[in-house]
Write a structure and sequence with these properties.
mainly alpha, 2 domains
Length: 410
């Protein structure tokens, strides 16, 4: 039995080895995608463009604009500010806003993500202790940079107003106060603002680096899609080339055929996983806080679950192209219910319950838990139990369907 399984596996390994393009894309294509995702999401959001319309034209309003421009997050787009003011004069404000934020369609000039309008009388109201009404309009087409720019602007405007008012009051009380004294007042105000904020401690991702969230998700998806694709191609290729009938006349059982074809897919998928795991650790600094041995064992177990789905797809499809289309359709659904694109916790209760039927959902929880949180079996046992149940159901159904297909064709 073992020799027959190894013979089938060796035959498929040779076919895979001769299909160099597929092999290269399966391994290095996945690694390249992980690198691009990590670099794209790991960088800080700096120099987000803002447009500022100053209706006050006072020394205080100009100082506020200069302070906003000096922040690391925001940068002033003077052309956009001038253009918006001109468009408001010649048309409606809504049309001017559309023209301002529509510039984001231009590749090399993304345009501003935030518009700040300083009202007339800003300086008078601020120095009198009356909070001025500063209006901000964010470009919500891309919510992440918009919310980042809004928070940075709110924090800076609040600090500027508190410092300016305190310095004005200090000057009124002590007309002879020096520049160094005013600087001390500013430092004291900033310390008071910092002290009034609740202390925040970040666990597991202290720098709040988005790459620490996106790259494990991408690694989980890469492991899944490559494995299921190779498994489906192995069997679909037999049908497409007309060699599937040769399997029918061979003295092998359906279980041996499935096991033999599973070995190459497992080898490629596992090699992919080891490669992306090394990239996450070396390139992006994502540590393996939990048990590496447990992670490797569970990764192999997860591959066995997904192999069943890959072979099931191959038995439905008649060609490799059909198998690819079916896999892409399945992948779109899996992305939705896995938490890869949309947090499952934000879904309705019925959709959250439905997500438990998708193996990749549980694998992502396991991968993130071991990598980032140093959790073990005592925490992850529900996900492991789900994978065991789903694996038994999927692989049993696949084997039954395969036996039925063989009996019909014989």
């Amino acid at each position: 039995m073992l020799s027959r399984i190894l013979n089938i596996a060796w035959k498929d390994m040779l076919h895979l080895w001769h299909n160099r393009l597929l092999l290269i894309l399966a391994i290095f294509g996945a690694a390249s995608e992980l690198l691009l995702i990590g670099w794209a999401t790991g960088s800080q959001m700096d120099d987000l463009k803002m447009a500022v319309v100053d209706h006050d034209q006072s020394a205080t309003s100009r100082a506020l604009i200069e302070q906003l421009d000096q922040t690391q997050t925001l940068t002033l787009d003077k052309d956009a500010s001038t253009s918006f003011a001109a468009n408001v004069e010649h048309g409606s404000r809504g049309t001017a806003l559309d023209k301002l934020f529509a510039r984001g369609n231009i590749i090399f000039d993304p345009g501003p993500v935030l518009l700040i309008e300083i009202p007339a009388g800003f300086e008078t109201d601020l120095l009198a202790g009356n909070p001025p009404d500063i209006e901000m309009t964010a470009n919500g087409a891309n919510s992440l940079p918009a919310s980042t720019a809004r928070r940075a602007a709110e924090e800076e405007i609040y600090a500027f107003g508190a410092i300016t008012l305190a310095q004005h009051q200090a000057t009124a009380a002590l007309p002879s106060i020096t520049a160094a004294g005013l600087q001390t007042v500013a430092q004291q105000v900033r310390q008071q603002i910092a002290a009034s904020q609740p202390p925040v401690t970040v666990r597991y991702n202290e720098e709040l680096d988005r790459a620490h969230y996106t790259t494990p998700s991408e690694a989980a998806f890469v492991l899944y899609i490559i494995t299921i694709m190779i498994a489906a191609f192995m069997l679909a290729r037999e049908r497409e080339l007309g060699t599937f009938e040769q399997l029918l006349v061979m003295p092998v059982r359906p279980l041996e055929i499935i096991a033999g074809k599973a070995i190459p897919a497992m080898a490629v998928g596992y090699a992919n996983f080891l490669l992306v795991l090394g990239i996450m650790n070396v390139v992006f600094g994502i540590p393996v806080r939990g048990s590496l041995a447990l992670l490797l064992i569970l990764a192999a177990s997860y591959l066995l679950v997904e192999l069943g789905r890959g072979f099931f797809v191959a038995m439905i499809a008649r060609t490799q192209n059909q198998a690819l289309l079916i896999i892409m359709l399945i992948a779109f659904v899996d992305i939705t219910f896995s938490g890869y694109a949309v947090p499952v916790e934000s879904m309705p209760p019925l959709m959250q319950a439905l997500s438990n039927l998708f193996p990749i959902r549980h694998w992502m929880i396991i991968l993130r838990g071991i990598l980032q949180k140093d959790v073990g079996l005592s925490v992850l046992w529900p996900q492991i139990a789900w994978l065991v149940v789903l694996g038994v159901l999927i692989n049993s159904g696949t084997l039954w369907f395969f036996r039925r297909s063989l009996s019909e064709q014989r």
